[in-house]
Specification:
Chain A: InterPro entries: Protohaem_IX_farnesylTrfase (IPR006369), UbiA_prenyltransferase (IPR000537), UbiA_prenylTrfase_CS (IPR030470), UbiA_sf (IPR044878). Chain A: Its EC number is 2.5.1.141. Chain A: Keywords: Cell membrane, Heme biosynthesis, Membrane, Transferase, Transmembrane, Transmembrane helix. The complex is a heterodimer of chains A (312) and B (53). With 312 residues, chain A is mostly helical. Chain A contains 15 helices and no strands. Chain A has 2 domains: 17-170, Tetracycline Repressor, domain 2; 172-312. The relative contact order of chain A is 0.11. The chains are: A mainly alpha (312), B mainly alpha (53). Chain A binds chain B through residues 3, 6, 8, 10, 14-18, 20, 48, 50-51, 54, 57, 116-117, and chain B through 7-9, 12-13, 15-16, 18-20, 30, 33-34, 37-38, 41.
């Protein structure tokens, strides 16, 4: 092969290794890693530390692969939205074909390796999660219904359930409630974001609730889902993975979250515009802390259990 | 005698190739580690020599 057969033209936007990493949505991956690790560590029994590390890595890569598939399919709308136009495909650094190939390859690899390292229930759940995010959410719901993120949020809620299945080989009330916690948390989290990132979704034509039903309805929905979230979050405290630490954290965090949702409901657009969506932005930031502290408290209960301190 | 000058293409893609190389090394190490753990957890049962059958 001669140099003449290689593409040697200088391309200012040529992909670097970091661009391929960016395809995997590292920030989303960090949430996946954390919740999956908590699900795994809170599960009764245990696995070899290396297998636990390997399983969480597979779950993270599976999550990243679904992110790459999402970026491949959504490249057209990512080009329009301010928040996403710097992503590797719309900016021209990675070709859509490369993103698709990486997404499919890593999906297959992560599922098979997780199955070999742990069990096929966990691997099946990971495969379903990737399918759910890439096909059900990205290709179907996202551009079709304003309830897109309600159902699509399930994809982000599976990791603790997968972590639990790695150890137990099955599904139980505790893992279903951990799933429900993230599932119910997603709508208020994203709708708060949609309230202060409004122009992006409108321009891209994504049927976000703020666009289809108006901002007043969105504010009501934020409160409604925050109310529905509270019993799930507090109920988890009475299961085998809960305990006084978790329950105290859940009661305080849910009271504050409800107060935030109530504040969002009481505001009108003029007030929000006047202070540049201060309350909505604060609620969004608090939602991240909310989820982190809930899973952190489950982890604390599990970590203290060997000393007879955690749990009921 | 001098070494041939490195092509501009290689310089441009150095980071990408280095990253991919490291990923492959990590992957091989992980599979090796997985094999060691799996084998030590479930030792291979060899058939007994001269057993009564």
């Amino acid at each position: 092969m001669t140099d003449a057969s290689i593409q040697t033209q200088t391309e200012p936007g040529e992909a670097q290794f970091g661009d391929f990493v960016a395809l995997l949505k590292p920030r989303v991956m960090s949430l996946v890693v954390f919740t999956a690790a908590v699900g795994l560590l809170a599960a009764p029994g245990g696995v070899h530390p290396f297998l636990a590390f390997f399983a969480v890595l597979c779950i993270a890569i599976g999550g990243g692969a679904s992110g790459a598939l999402n970026m491949w399919y959504d490249a057209d709308i990512d080009r329009i939205m301010k928040r996403t136009k710097g992503r590797p495909i719309p900016s021209g650094r990675v070709t859509p074909q490369d993103a698709l190939a990486i997404g499919l390859t890593l999906s297959g690899f992560s599922v098979v390796m997780l199955g070999l390292a742990s069990n096929w229930v966990a691997a099946g759940l990971l495969a379903f999660t990737i399918f759910f995010y890439a096909v059900i959410y990205t290709m179907w719901l996202k551009r079709w219904t304003p309830q897109n993120i309600v159902i699509g949020g399930a994809a982000g809620a599976f990791p603790p359930m997968i972590g639990w299945a790695v150890v137990t080989g099955g599904v139980s009330l505790e893992s279903v409630l951990m799933f429900a916690l993230t599932f119910m948390w997603t709508p208020p989290h994203f709708w708060a974001l949609a309230l202060f990132m409004k122009s992006d979704y409108e321009e891209a034509g994504v049927p976000m609730l703020t666009v289809t039903h108006g901002r007043r309805t969105t504010r009501r929905h934020v409160l409604a889902y925050t109310i529905l979230l509270a019993p799930v979050a507090i109920g988890l405290g009475f299961t085998s993975i809960g305990g006084p630490i978790y329950l105290s954290a859940a009661v305080i965090m849910n009271a504050l979250f409800l107060k935030g949702a109530w504040d969002i409901l009481r505001r009108d657009e003029d007030a929000a515009e006047a202070d540049k969506y201060k309350v909505e932005k604060r609620f969004f930031a608090f939602s991240l802390l909310y989820l982190f502290l809930h899973f952190g408290a489950i982890l604390a209960e599990a970590a203290l259990r060997p000393w007879g301190l955690g749990g009921w | 005698m001098s070494f041939r000058e490195e092509h501009e293409l290689h310089k441009r893609r150095f980071g990408r190739n280095l990253g991919l190389g490291l990923v492959l090394i990590v992957f091989v190490s992980l599979v090796f580690g997985l094999t060691i753990v799996k084998v030590s957890q479930n030792p291979i049962q060899l058939p007994a020599q001269g057993g009564t059958e």
